Amino acid sequence: MKNKIHFLNTIWSDSILIESQGHFALIDSGSDFYYPMIKAYLEELNIKRLDFLLLTHFHNDHYGCMINLLDDFLIDNVYMRDYSGHDGTNANGHDAGEEYRNGEINTANKIKEKAKEKSNLVMIEDDFDHLDFYDFHFDVFGSYENIRRIYEDKNSKYYHMNRFNENYDCISLFCQLEGINIYLGGDITDCDNSEFLELDHLNRRAILAIYKKYNIDKINLYKVAHHGVHDSNSKETMALIRPDYAVITNTDRWLRNYPTISYLVDGNKDVKILRTDWQKFVFEIENKKLKYHAITCDSLFDE
Prior knowledge:
Blueprint: E1 3-7, E2 16-20, E3 23-27, H1 35-44, E4 49-54, H2 60-63, H3 66-72, E5 74-80, H4 98-118, E6 120-123, E7 130-133, E8 136-141, H5 146-151, E9 172-177, E10 180-184, H6 202-214, E11 221-223, H7 235-241, E12 245-248, H8 252-255, H9 260-267, E13 272-275, E14 279-286, E15 289-296
Parallel strand pairs: 3-4, 4-5, 5-6, 10-11, 11-12, 12-13
Antiparallel strand pairs: 1-2, 1-14, 2-3, 7-8, 8-9, 9-10, 14-15
Helix pairs in contact: 3-4, 6-7, 7-9
């Protein structure tokens, strides 16, 4: 059977379906208003059971449909890291106050309770560094709890200060399958951060670790981190990744505000850049070859 990665048509939101040996799993669940589309697509593929649902980080454009999915589908395992409760900015980059943090804590507790009721809940902690799914063997990066560590460090000037963003605790995943290098960037950050040096260039660090471990020097399929925002896709890191295919869960309306596409082209002038605003993309890996087809659909994002 072919191995496939389905990138659903979400904008400013991620939901990625992994398929291997007739089994299915989801990485992130999309924003809640995408649920009718996500449910319909799973039903169209006659999916009744998911081996796992993995949440890369606790932002509502990634966890939004988790409770609905747990209610409507059989899910064997839920992988998630706990919400830190220490963010200073929310998923939209706006200031986050106590009301926001308390609301997110309540939501995290509801998701965990539902996962315990309907599935096997596995909390992502420091030693969560790989995830096997039939032919896919993922290396997991960013499982260390950066936010909580800095928040609780009595030697840090940010001790017990809410100055963070959950993207600093985002995981990314790498898999090499039949010689094809696949990197799913989640919302991992890649910026210079003069406030928190420990959080500098997390995306670049992950790529360098991958290249060293696998003795490679490029990525074939890159799910562009953080919906194409340049703070997660620096020029230096795009020159390292040099993808053949770059899937961006966004639309040109916002991407034109960032230099990310030009950075991708500078890294590889032949890169195929795919935006999920009007299409789903299904990549197939077979006989050491990577190919894709697009499924045209209506955009569900109100622009």
